[in-house]
Fold this protein.
Amino acid sequence: MKALVYGGVGHRSWVEVPEPALKDPEDAIVRVDAVTICGTDLHILKGDVPEVEPGRILGHEAVGTVLEVGASVRDIVVGQRVLISCISACGRCRYCKQGQYGQCLGGGGWVLGHSIDGTQAERVRVPFADHSLHVLPDNVSDDDALMLADILPTSYEVGVLAGRTSPGDTMVVVGAGPIGLAALITARLFSPSRVIMVDPAQSRRASALAAGADHAVAPEEAEALVASLTEGAGADVVVAAVGAPTSFELGTSLVRAGGHVANVGVHGEPATLHLETLWIKDVTITTGLVDTRTTPLLLRLLSEKLLDVSSLCTHRFGLDEMQDAYDVFSRAGDTGALKVALFSPESVA
């Protein structure tokens, strides 16, 4: 089969690799029908995630069809159409029992495309299939379901919920890429009074307004706008959705006393924490890796048409156009790409 293989910093290749095989009785083998690329994959290629070794198949988000299951798999059966979660969970360790699947001690957590081969391939081995696959309703399309593999639960859990978003809040989202837009979409479940999106790219500000943002401004305009809308107090919740020092530091400058800054971005270099101004403001700053504990809820809301993610997928490719898809996704400022979806020939037959 073919897969997208990491070759070290700046190098990737779409090449023939061995077929995956069951290694554990809780595994499943899934044919990849649709897959997407994550900003984290770009961070890996930049060298920001040094734990990923050359030779690793990248990717941690996909929709597929179950081809084979291990002897201990109880709830997943061959032929089912499933969502492959970005987080795998053993279901037994102390963290899994608390719903903190991202911190799994039993061999799960973020493993796909990180410590084991991932989903940007024609087929993939998924560990802990009963806890790591979600059977999809017939009325949820592949490209909509892809948004629930990572960006929707990540933004919802690490951004909206960790930020303690409440009705009437003023929320600022720094970064109008896929994670930022997913934060905007899921924040609407809590009826904030306004959501302000901040991004240097005009195309992404336009996407934010189209997705329902109340305001979308460039970074240099953010402080003045937030001050004018909050009588100088600052935002109740700031979601930092870009893994860059400048974006995180901007976010901490926009929050009110007693407010929350929820960092969602993947950081590959240090960011300055300005305690000289924050220490007196009772500000709560949170970080986190998604647990995907809310995926069943989000999937139900999507199936019941209470979430609309149709604006997030902007470009579609065949699976064998993986290199082209990476080129488009990595130049989002020029191409206007948000999420890209790649489909196997079997899924469109």
The CA atoms of residues 313 and 339 lie 5 Å apart. The chain has a mean pLDDT of 96.
